[in-house]
Write the structure tokens for this entry.
Amino acid sequence: MSAPRDRLRIAVQKSGRLAETSLDLLRRAGLSFRASRDRLFLFGDNLPIDVLLVRDDDIPGLLREGSCELGMVGRNVLDEQSLATPGVVFPKVVSTLGFGRCHLAIAVPQEMPWGSPADLEGLRIATSYPALLAAWLAREGVAAEVVTLNGSVEIAPRLGKADVICDLVSTGATLQANQLREVATVLDSEAVLARTPRALSPLLAELAERLQARIDGALSGAQVRLLMLQAPRSALADITRLLPSRQAPSVMSLDGQPDQISVQALCHRSLDWSHLEALRQVGARGLMVMAVDQVLA
Ligand code: PRP
Ligand code: ZN
């Protein structure tokens, strides 16, 4: 038995669609790192939190066996592996991260006619997501042959290995380059923060919660803007009604001018020029909008 670790580990994709944004989010959560020589490991400088750079498909397994406590991974990868190994306790999704949106889709050769999923009956479908595909086929009541491939799924029809494919689509460029068209969605996916199903030591549990709160805070910071303005007190009801905000604003009297107020409100990021113009119409002035980097509820 090795000694229990005293540094938290979070796994992120080494290269691929999620890699860049995952590391960026960790930086926005206030972490800084030094890279190891082999570039497989980033050593946390300012907190006892290290980053493992791995293949996305390896992240659910690393979480399950407890080699890392947290991981940023596509929901598609997590769902595929948990469906493929029923009865095994799986990592829990603790946050959705709002990036890496894509979907797992059925795509057919450009010239193939398409009416409904029933058209797949008896065909060979190439995919790297056999469990998700099989579950979808069962739900649709279609009997088709699932051909499992580890990569380059999009060229399977041209190679004669399959008739159609089931693959992730993000921009659609890969399908287009391979003269395929998307006809049905099997799963919508995005990046999520997943946590090991194993019990953590008090130290690692505390670090995990701290990092989760910081990640949530960095994400919600991107969702809000801080609005400041001044106005006659009599305009407060109108101002509150116009704010794109669910929280009550903070209201302060101006020094020596009890009928004048200063208002601060955390607004939805949809706050724009037309809101400001409408607020000015009802008496607000000195309007200022600021970006919010960090939020700790
Ligand atoms: C997916 C999929 C396609 C590509 C589609 O791979 O297998 O190759 O992305 O993206 P597009 O619609 O923008 O062209 P992914 O990046 O998830 O890599 P992996 O399957 O090798 O992990
Ligand atoms: Zn992958």
Q: What stands out?
A: The CA atoms of residues 105 and 185 lie 4 Å apart. Residues 16-17, 56, 151, 167-174 surround PRP (ligand 1) (CB under 6 Å). The mean pLDDT is 94. The first helix runs from residue 19 to 28.
